[in-house]
Amino acid sequence: MNPLSNPVFRQLVARAVRTDYLHNLTGFAWLIVQPLLLLAVYAFVFTTIFKARAPAGEALGFVPFLAVAFWPWTAFSESVLRAAGAVSANAALIGKVAFPSELLPLSTVAATFLMHMVGYLAVLVVLQLLGTPLYWPGLLAALPLLALLCLFACALSLFASALQVFVRDVGQILPPLMTFWFFTTPILYSADALPPGLAAAMRYNPMAWYAGRLRDFLLHRDFSLGPADLVVPLLTLVLFGLALAFFRRFSAHFEDFL
Amino acid sequence: MTSGPPEAPQQPSGQASRELLVRVDGVSKLYPRVHHPGERLRAFAALLAGREPVEGARVLNGVSLEVFRGESVGIIGENGAGKSTLLKVLTGVISPSRGSVEVNARVAALLELGAGFQPDFSGIDNVRMKAALLGMSARQLESRLDEILDFADIGDYVHEPVKHYSSGMVVRLGFAVVAASDPQLLITDEVLAVGDESFQKKCIRWIENFLERGNTLLMVSHSMYLVQKLCQRALWLHQGAPRQIGGVFPVTQAYLAWHEEKNAAERRHRSAVQGEGGLYRVAAFRLPGHGPGHGPATDGQAADADLTIPAGSDLDAELILHSPDGRAPVALLGVIRADGTPVYGVASDFDGVAAERVDEQHFRFRIRFERLPLLPGSYSLRGHAMDPEGLRLCDTAEIRFSVCGDSRELGMVRLPHRWS
Q1: Domain end: B200, B230, B247, which one?
Q2: Ramachandran quadrant class, A185 (left: phi over 0; alpha: psi -120 to 50; beta: rest)
Q3: Is the pLDDT reported for residue A79 higher than 90?
Q4: Hey, of A15, A90, A97, A166, which one would you mutate to test binding to chain B, going by the most B CBs within 10 A of its CB?
Q5: B234, B367: one domain
Q6: B304 shares a domain with B232
Q7: Is B383 helix (H, G, I), strand (E, B) or coil?
Q8: How far is the alpha carbon of A114 from chain B, nearest alpha carbon, in Å?
Q9: In this structure, what DSSP letter does residue B72 have?
Q10: Is residue B264 assigned to a domain?
Q11: Domain that holds residue B103
């Protein structure tokens, strides 16, 4: 079953987009303005207050360095956090209508990702207009990467949303975990700046690979391939398969626990 | 009367052409107890280990049911009998703890009021979602949207959020989408009761039409009238287990009789202390010619209700009274419904009937109720011994019987009538 052609999935995505992002008239404008305001805040904080310098060899400055990896991270993290509660939030639906309930977390991820990608594009365009020479052809390589990142978010969301039905504490544990993950991923800093021990540990953080490759494609024009470029995508696919199996194994019992 | 006679549903065609749409095989459902975090964890651990939860509420217990294409089956039972849970298992909303369920049809279910409706969205948005949940594509919906809005008939309210709707409007909209989804098997819970009179009629007309086209219906209802009108067969669930399954008339009548007896038992319990010991007693009370095994029940206890009398046949009763002083007592005979409602009573002295003396102390009365006009249901015939003055009731005997028949007339007694 392909969820993209499923009418229930489409309805759920449309619904999520409308309630979460387009609930007022200016919603669509905010969708673009908000990321840009955020970009301005980060630019001010990190270039004026913290005097953060771009890592060595980063010719384009700190703000592009941050922005290119930060928006995909936000899309990822917010998708997972929102989708984790998607099943419990729709308890009324699950108890009354028979439908594949994996569509609930999946549609939440899809809607959140979609909206953040609009913001990401706006940020990239503004960066370009402000004089950052982005490597636009790199977007062709970045798109499948972002799709893969979305799939990664789907996998974690399936795990988290199913687990949260049975163990409600998941909803409390997840936000600090995501914050920890954010700071242990080279988004605000470069992996090269880490002590050698920690830099080696980064190899086990898939998000470090996603952030690094996005910068490579959009800023550094670096398209060289390493073993990680095979391992992480494969890992993401396997994880997604496992998550879907996990979710379906337990979805039949949701109603008992909701 | 725990199990009724296995009644074959009337099928227009031969057995071979019967297509099994629903097979429920030994289904049990245990809701694990999950109120406290500890209980949740234990229930989840049991789930992970693939065991049945240790503790919980057993809502269904060993229910089996087969439904063939073109049949209509009513599910009846008191509150909490597991009817709605059975429907949920059938639609796949919940999975059974034990047993299996197979459904081979395009199903549309109307389980609860506004099932799947989200209150913050407008009616039309909810129609879109509900249609998608019922498997309609966007294009199919567009072509049927007018039909749906027409059926629901709630005017411009479709653009209002559903939270501003009355419950009747929610049902109207819900049923309209279900009707438009062209199901083969319709599963409804007690939702039609919410709509107003005219909408209920509209729905019933639609369901009748739906059944005429050879489709299948499974419905839960507390309205025996509706069940008898729409269903061929009925399943009576009692405390999660099937109590009786068969033709709609015997099952619904047995169910109603059970309710009446339950109410009467409560009342009897209250009045049990008033038992009066009199001089004149019932020596024997029987219904001659209505089958064996209905011996005297002279101590005021009801005999087993194994007597079935076809509606409209004659009912004969014989009452022998014992009179210690040799004076002829008065006999009082009464028919009451199983819930204790008096239907008819007559005493021998009303009609100026003299007793037939059997011996020094025994007097016999015989009575025949010709072409018994009682409607199908459970009744009792009571024979009373009264003093010779007909003033004091001294003793009571009771024989239970049921009247059988396929009549859908309402009430207790068939009044002679003619349409003109």
Answers
A1: B247
A2: beta
A3: yes
A4: A97
A5: no
A6: no
A7: strand
A8: 20
A9: E
A10: no
A11: 17-247
Say how many domains are in chain B: 2
- Is B62 found in the same domain as B206? yes
CA–CA distance, B355 with B348 (Å, rounded to integer)? 8
Q: Which of A147, A78, A109, A98 is closest to A16 using CA atoms?
A: A109
Residues B385 and B337 in one domain: yes
Instruction: Please check whether residue B391 lies inside any domain of the structure.
Output: yes
Matching residue, tokens 């839960």: B220
Q: How far apart are CA B226 and CA B244, in angstroms?
A: 18
Q: Is the pTM of this model over 0.80?
A: no
Closest Cβ opposite residue A93 in set B44, B116, B135: B116
Give the pLDDT confidence of A231-253 residue by residue, as tens digits: 999 999 999 999 999 999 888 88
Residue type, B325: D
Size of interface A-B (CB pairs under 8 A): 73
**Partner-chain contact A97 B44, CB within 8 Å:** no
Task: Tell me whether residues A97 and B138 touch, CB distance under 8 A.
Answer: no
Q: Are the C-beta atoms of residues B105 and B262 closer than 8 Å to each other?
A: no
- Residue B282 · residue B396 · CB < 8 Å: yes
On whether the CB atoms of residues B190 and B222 are closer than 8 A, the answer is yes
Question: Could you please report the per-residue DSSP string of B290-342?
Answer: S-S-----TTSPBPPS--EEETTS-EEEEEEEE-TTSPPPEEEEEEEETTS-E
- Chain A residues in contact with B131 by the CB 8 A cut-off are 7
Do B78 and B186 belong together in one domain? yes
pLDDT digit string (tens) for A59-68? Answer: 678 888 888 9
Q: What confidence tens digit (pLDDT) does each residue in B12-54 have?
A: 444 446 788 899 998 998 888 888 877 888 888 887 887 766 6
* CB proximity list for A137: less than 8 A, separation 6 or greater: none
Cβ atoms of residues A165 and A246 within 8 Å: no
Print the SS3 string covering A47-101: HHHCCCCCCCCCCCCHHHHHHHHHHHHHHHHHHHHHHHCHHHHCHHHHCCCCCCC
* Residue B333 and residue B375 in one domain: yes
Query: What does the pLDDT average to over B119-123?
Result: 85
* Residue B109 belongs to some domain of the structure: yes
Residue B282 · residue B317 · CB < 8 Å: no
Contact A11 B129 (CB under 8 A): yes
B48: closest chain A residue by CA:
A250
Q: Are residues B152 and B40 in the same domain?
A: yes
Contact call for residues B358 and B319 (beta carbons, < 8 A): no
B interface mutation test: which of A256, A257, A258 has the most B CBs within 10 A? A256
Contacts of B130 (CB under 8 A, 6+ apart): B116, B117, B174, B177
pLDDT above 70: residue B123 = yes
**B221 and B295 co-located in one domain:** no
Residue B77: inside a domain: yes
- Of the residues A2, A6, A11, the best mutation for testing chain B's interface (the one with the most B CB atoms within 10 Å of its CB) is A11
A253:B95 CB<8 A: yes
Contact B34 A95 (CB under 8 A): no
CATH number, domain of B370, equals 2.70.50.60
Give Cα A164 distance to the centre of its chain: 20
Confidence band (pLDDT; 50, 70, 90) for B6?
very low
| Lookup: tokens for A123 | 């940020």
